[in-house]
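Notes on consecutive records. When two proteins share a document, each keeps its own sequence and its own token line. Never mix them. Below: protein one.
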Amino acid sequence: MIRNSVKAIIIVNGEILLTKNQDPEGFFYLFPGGGQEHGETFHEALQRECLEEIGSSVQIGELLFIREYIGKNHEHAAFDADAHQVEYYFLCQLNGVSCQPTNPDSHQIGTEWLPIEMLHTKRLYPKAFIEPLQQFIRGQKTTIYLGDIN
């Protein structure tokens, strides 16, 4: 089964808001968002996920990127070989200030604003997202569909 997921790209003054997570290998960062539930629109799912993970509602703007993740093609294939997820990344703005997440993911330990030019020094998933994101920030034309990247 293919799972839809919606993600928020929240940028303020050259920094991006990400969820900060931890596993045995250390810290890693993800875009806020998550899986669409049955009966939800993308916007409803993204609002719910942002409240759960960053503690704020968002104003949802344009769709910037679409990414697929087909588990058997990536480094953790032994754990998620059957996974097939399509992720939709929307440009968003915070409605007010983010506060405590209401239902963070299991590995999530908080949120963090990171300078976009420093993303290559962090363990960000999907890592292949850094270049298209930087192109977008520079005002360069980017491809919306990024394919099966990690």
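Protein two starts on the next line and is unrelated to protein one.
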Amino acid sequence: MRIDIISIFPEYFAPLGVSLIGKARERGTLDIRLHQLRDWAHDVHRTVDDTPYGGGPGMVMKPDPWGAALDDVLDADPAARPRIVVPTPSGVPFTQKLAMEYAAEPWLLFTPARYEGIDSRVMAEYGSRLRVDEVSIGDYVLAGGEVAVLVMVEAVGRLLPGVLGNARSAVDDSFAPGAMENLLEGPVYTKPPEWRGHRVPEILLSGHHGKIARWRRDEALRRTAKNRPELLSALPPEGLDKHDRALLSELAELAELGFPVGGQDVAD
């Protein structure tokens, strides 16, 4: 996969040279190309922003540098066309499903903005002939889109074949399609069996795979009820067994009474 990133802070993306993403780049699985937007600003100050029409606080990124930058990146490979991703708090939510969709693309082009964003005519221009997505990683505002790009590149990159040591890791992720119907993952443990007085639940040491699977599902239901209760309403009724329904009923009653409904390290 090829990924281009145009930014006034290309140095922000140094973390993409380490860990799994860094190794994927070394192997050639990921071809990440960074571009300094100011290289396409030709005044003495290399200006990329100006005051907004209509007044108001903040500055808006100018269309000329962005247009020139995008044209040059696109012209370098005229036979291919990228999917452009614009990080913005006003975009559609970035989800695991969207990450999987992006992982199937051969070429992504990210345009992280600063200030009040990019002049809207830029995306109107390129959206007329390319797929342009405005995407948000959450309901909050950052100083710039670079952090959002880091999040998305890591989420997408780890889904590419050969990036994760164990391919099942991506399949079993929270929010992965088919992974326990979008339940959150429950608690996890490793050696030693006791640490600072806290013991690993005995069921995980039993070797009984059926009971372990049941325990993990119960804990996933508990954690989802505690941290993301809105996800429970999306569970398909046909995917719930008798035990699921009994546990969800119990959790609902506890919530109504004001008792905690998740995070219980029970062994049965």
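For the record: The chain has eight helices and nine strands.
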